[in-house]
Structure formats: C-alpha cells, structure tokens
Amino acid sequence: MEHKLVLLKNFSSESEAELARGLLEANGVKAMVQKGDAAAAELFVGAAGEANLYVEEHSLARAREILNGSHSAGSER
C-alpha cells in the first residue's frame, strides 16, 4: 500500500531540514527532505537553499508533536 506524503514544514536550509528528518526518524516517523528548486537555489545561494520536509499523511500529527518537543524521547538535551 502506498502512503501519501504531505508537507510538514518548510526550512530555510537543507541542513535544518535534515536535522529535523533525523529527529523524526529516530522517533519512528519516516520522513523525506526535498530541496526547493535545486538549480535556482544553487545558482543564487549555493547549496543552502530552502528545503521541504515531508512525512506520510498518517504520521503528520505525531511528526508535529515531535518537532514541537511534545514527545518523550530519551535524547532530550
């Protein structure tokens, strides 16, 4: 069965989006980062262009909780 991906959040940099993806996946939520218009981003701002973070639709609420710090993960700092 294929799951629909939905936009969770837009980040100003790919590295921020990747950090969030790592946090989600460490908490059992599959996530995918997609850079904005890659060609335009690299032309104008190098590799640090915008990036979108997507999750499966059924995981959206859980993903929001995790990013908002409402989870009980053991990796709190």
Descriptive account of the structure:
The chain has 77 residues and is α+β, with helices and mostly antiparallel strands. The protein has one domain: Alpha-Beta Plaits (2-Layer Sandwich). The chain is built from three helices and three strands; from the N terminus they run βαβαβα. Strands 1-3-2 form a three-stranded antiparallel beta sheet, with helices on one face. It is globular.
List keywords for this structure.
disordered C terminus; 77 residues; single chain; 3 strands; globular; alpha+beta; 23% strand; 3 helices; Alpha-Beta Plaits; 3-stranded antiparallel sheet
CATH superfamily, by name, is Hypothetical protein rpa1041
CATH architecture: 2-Layer Sandwich
Q: If you consult CATH, what is the topology?
A: Alpha-Beta Plaits
Give the C-alpha Rg: 13 Å
Q: Please write the CATH class name.
A: Alpha Beta
- The computed structural class is alpha+beta
Low-pLDDT windows of residues: 73-77
What order do the SSEs take from the amino end to the carboxyl end, as H and E?
Answer: EHEHEH
Question: What is the approximate shape?
Answer: globular
Record field, number of beta strands: 3
Distance between the termini: 37 Å
Q: How much beta, percentage-wise?
A: 15-25%
Kindly state the mean pLDDT as a whole number? Answer: 83
Please, what is the oligomeric state?
single chain
Quick overview:
The protein is of the alpha+beta class and 77 residues long. It has helices spanning 14-26, 38-45, 60-67; strands at 5-11, 31-35, 51-56.
